């Protein structure tokens, strides 16, 4: 893998005396706690061992040259004092956005860079390829310009790039998981306070499987932003009586007693999901920490139902995958993961049933949707950073 990245860098960029360094930034999968981050609730993601590799080198001028092996026909170049969003720069806008966020915060980016990316996250699968790219750029900047930005702050700057530069109003979960992931662990994050705890993910008899609908997430950005607005209206309605900062502050009892304040029935359903999913996430992590994997799995299933019926972000393909999974022997739990409207499900499956799971779920899914699903065994990884490897010395 590293050799491929190094070779590609050499092919694309001319020789230089500057040192080239290698970086890796993971993708993420969320185990439970969906659409809770921007509602001040809890999430429970883990970083994956697939993600974005970056090779980077300083330049003597203020030009930035980007090349991605995933978009070989779309190299992007710009000057550091021309950080404007341009439609034609496509994927390159994420790098521009991160540069702009760092510079706006007062960090000095004194020189241009040559940057090559190689990503092995399946495209449009909802496993956070964009956060992975943003954090790859963040760790490159942090390293080359000796900025000493801590990973949580890098996550926030990357989120700012996505919110303000790219226009996707995402919460903090993806960037946090990508920056702070820890191998063999998932991380419970309170998105209101930014307090977090790692939980070991040492499953002995089970594995975590991601199933990809291979349905691209259409309209996901506009629907996502719409959900945010619905929740904001619901919060404002509850705040007329309750002293709360976010839906993450609301208990089930408070919600049940006061939900009548949310007059719009759609907004009420959205808030119901946000409140129940937050409590479910806290309970699920407690169960996992106690070794109750069955209990964790049941809450995963409930999470999917709530996303399907109350939050309405699943869709035919994700429902078909989850419902097929629930019918299989040896399935502890299964749910959609990420923003929804396509993308992936995440399931916990007994080791001896993995093969039958893939076969049966694949067949049922194809019958229902006409599409082929892909399955990946989850391997967790660490957060974004430089790769220190002897292979590096060949650069
Ligand atoms: C996307 C966003 C996250 C989060 C999830 C839903 O992945 O980037 O901030 O809101 O959707 O849980």
TrEMBL record:
Protein name: Galactokinase
Native source species: Bacillus gobiensis
Alphabetically ordered keywords of this record: ATP-binding, Carbohydrate metabolism, Cytoplasm, Galactose metabolism, Kinase, Magnesium, Metal-binding, Nucleotide-binding, Transferase
Lineage, highest ranks first: Bacteria, Bacillati, Bacillota, Bacilli, Bacillales
Enzyme class: transferase
Residues reported in the UniProt entry to bind substrate: 34-37, 224
Underlying gene: galK
HAMAP family, per database record: Galactokinase (MF_00246)
The keyword Transport is annotated on this UniProt entry: no
Record's catalysed reaction(s): alpha-D-galactose + ATP = alpha-D-galactose 1-phosphate + ADP + H(+)
Record-annotated Galactokinase N-terminal domain positions: 8-57
Pathway(s) it belongs to: Carbohydrate metabolism; galactose metabolism
Site (Transition state stabilizer): 28
Sequence ranges assigned to domain GHMP kinase N-terminal in this UniProt record: 93-182
